[in-house]
UniProtKB/TrEMBL annotation:
Keyword Hydrolase: yes
Name of this chain's protein: N-acetylmuramoyl-L-alanine amidase AmiC
Key word Cell wall biogenesis/degradation present: yes
Pfam families, alphabetized: Amidase_3, AMIN, LysM
GO cellular component entries: outer membrane-bounded periplasmic space
Family named by the database record: Belongs to the N-acetylmuramoyl-L-alanine amidase 3 family.
The EC number(s) this enzyme carries: 3.5.1.28
């Protein structure tokens, strides 16, 4: 009897020691794989921050991730068949208490790893970004820019058209590990923005003289600075970032259009929104706050006043078209410090299509017909902007030159007023202002006005 009790006590103690050891380990709840055009992101969900080691092996190519004092409690995903980097994924136990994850690779890859704090959607995460490594004798891997829609443009083949197309960079906000705002019925901002962006890109491509570049054309994350670089690589003439707004008060509704404010936001709502959107870059492992001083200096040195002015003009055109579509949240262009708008050489705007936090607007954002109308309204604003401010060497510039070459002209004399000139030629005052790019009715003697057709 005594031996039996002793044996049972020993077994119970061993079981308690095993449970205690397991309790001290970090639980790995599962993992996810996001496939981008130029990298693959592997995300491990953990109950707490985990110490880890990452190293590569050859023959065959593998990436080994050792999670110190961790155990796997969830499942592991299967890589997509078209994943350019990861071929397979397996796990095992190392040194008794450590969890080893092995990614079988299709080609050599560089890896960058970092831990992320919990947010409103996910808990603690270990993120590993894998980028194809260029080997000697091999061509460079394709990037998000090089495989995008614009790669078939005639200039790629060495034939420069007489009049070039205007390039519109269409940026679908968020993506991949970053879902953006989420509506009451589970609608994710990243899905809505991608759907609207694709519709807008198709309409841009169908319009003579315009060509679209989709910055993001799938469910993957692109760092905010990289979005600007993609637009710049394609020599974009305009950058349009598509988002869906959110606010703590679910009654708030309507569209908004933002341009960059170098000095900060113009309203409390704009400041709140800018902070929320800019925090998305933390998901990419980059804390923008650490770069604010450098960025501010660069912006000042590059003197982007002309770009900001054109951004405001383009944004005002788009807002006017959205106003015709339905309710807008703000009647005027809003300004905020969105990181994605900080290209010093490309006119840029951010369109908040509607409030996904408003139940009725969330339903509209899910509706394909409403998405079509949003895309068309944005395109109409873009076309009107370029018709008025066409860059040289484009079809829009050629069309405007033809109009002005054959148009009537009026030299202003002392005492003339704009309304009297419009009346004498039988044209609308607004049309006269628009054709001559006049903000008001102020004119000067000696100035020559182009008279629109009656």
């Amino acid at each position: 009897m005594f031996r039996k009790l002793a044996r049972n006590s020993l077994l119970a103690a061993l079981m308690l020691m095993t449970v205690a050891a397991a309790a001290g380990q970090v639980s790995v709840d599962g993992a996810r794989i996001w496939n981008g055009p130029d990298h693959t992101r592997f995300v491990v969900d953990t109950e707490a921050p985990v110490e880890h080691k990452v190293f590569a092996l050859k023959d065959p190519h593998r990436l080994v991730i050792d999670l110190i004092d961790a155990r796997l409690d969830g499942g592991l995903p299967d890589p997509a068949a078209d994943d350019r980097v990861v071929a397979g994924l397996r796990s095992g136990i190392r040194a008794g208490d450590d969890l080893r994850l092995v990614l079988d690779l299709k080609q050599p890859a560089r890896a960058k790893s970092f831990n992320l704090e919990p947010n409103g959607t996910y808990g603690h995460r270990l993120v590993i970004d894998l980028m194809p490594k260029v080997e000697a004798g091999r061509s460079a891997p394709l990037t998000a820019a090089s495989i995008n829609r614009g790669s078939g443009h005639p200039s790629v083949h060495g034939v420069r058209p007489a009049t070039r197309d205007l390039v519109i960079a269409v940026d679908a906000g968020h993506g991949g590990e970053d879902p953006g705002a989420i509506g009451a019925h589970g609608t994710r901002e990243k899905d809505v923005t991608l759907a609207i962006s694709r519709k807008l890109a198709r309409r841009v491509d169908a319009h003579p003289g315009l060509r679209a570049v989709l910055v993001r054309d799938g469910d993957y994350y692109i760092r905010l600075r990289e979005r600007i670089e993609i637009a710049r690589k394609h020599k974009a003439d305009l950058f349009v970032s598509i988002h869906a707004d959110a606010f703590k008060d679910r009654r708030v509704r309507g569209s908004s259009v933002f341009t960059l404010s170098a000095g900060g936001a113009t309203s409390e709502a704009a400041r709140w929104l800018a902070e929320r959107e800019n925090r998305a870059d933390l998901i990419g492992g980059v804390d923008l706050k650490k770069r604010d001083d450098i960025l501010a200096t660069v912006l000042l040195e590059m003197s982007q006043n002309a770009t900001l002015e054109l951004s405001d003009v383009a944004a005002d055109k788009v807002l006017a078209k959205l106003r015709g579509l339905g309710e807008v949240h703000q009647q005027r262009i809003q300004k905020a410090g969105f990181a994605v708008l900080k290209s010093p050489d490309i006119p840029s705007m951010l369109v908040e299509t509607a409030f996904i936090s408003n139940p009725s607007e969330e339903q509209r954002l899910r509706d394909k017909a409403y998405q079509d109308r949003l895309a068309q309204a944005i395109l109409d604003g873009i076309v009107e902007y370029f018709a008025e401010y066409p860059p040289p060497g484009t079809r829009f510039a050629k069309a405007r030159s033809a109009i002005t070459a054959s148009a009537r002209r009026h030299r202003i004399e002392s005492g003339d007023t704009l309304s009297e000139i419009a009346q004498s030629y039988g044209v609308k005052l607004g049309s006269l202002r628009h054709l001559n790019r006049l903000d008001g009715d102020r004119i000067r003697a000696g100035q020559v006005l182009i008279i629109p057709e009656s």
